[in-house]
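Reply to dn_fold:

You asked what the input looked like. This is it:
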Amino acid sequence: MIEALKQKLTDEADKLRFELNVTLPSEIRRAVELGDLRENSEYKAALERQQFVQARLGQLTQRLSKLSSIDESQIATDAVGLGSKVVVEDQDTKSRENYHMIFGDAEDFDDGQVTMSSPIGRALLGKKVGDLAVLRLPARNRKLRIVELMTIHESDD
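and this is what came back:
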């Protein structure tokens, strides 16, 4: 899971570096050749894109640095943590819900995926099978009992 995310972020960073070092300089050069830069929309657009790409590249570099410092062996094998798949039972309705704990910078969330920093993620983090997690909502508190847990160590993705 962590390696797949690192690869995805590295691929995006590589594309942005290419754009920053190859594509945008040629666009800026072409716009400069058009003449008066004060009213040159192509020039302004290329500079704005360049600033955006530099900022995004900085974010990706920082995120990759943080990911590199994560040691999977330090993630609990018997408690909810990064990559855990959890089945909870609502103590009031007795309905069951499935959650998959993921990083907060995912672009597309699949059904049941929650970030560890979300309210439900914070409520579940560190809980073990049989534990009761209290999810504090504005209208009420939900009590969720952990009934099944598969950690990142047991997962095959």
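Helices lie at 2-33, 41-68, 119-124.
Hope that clears it up.
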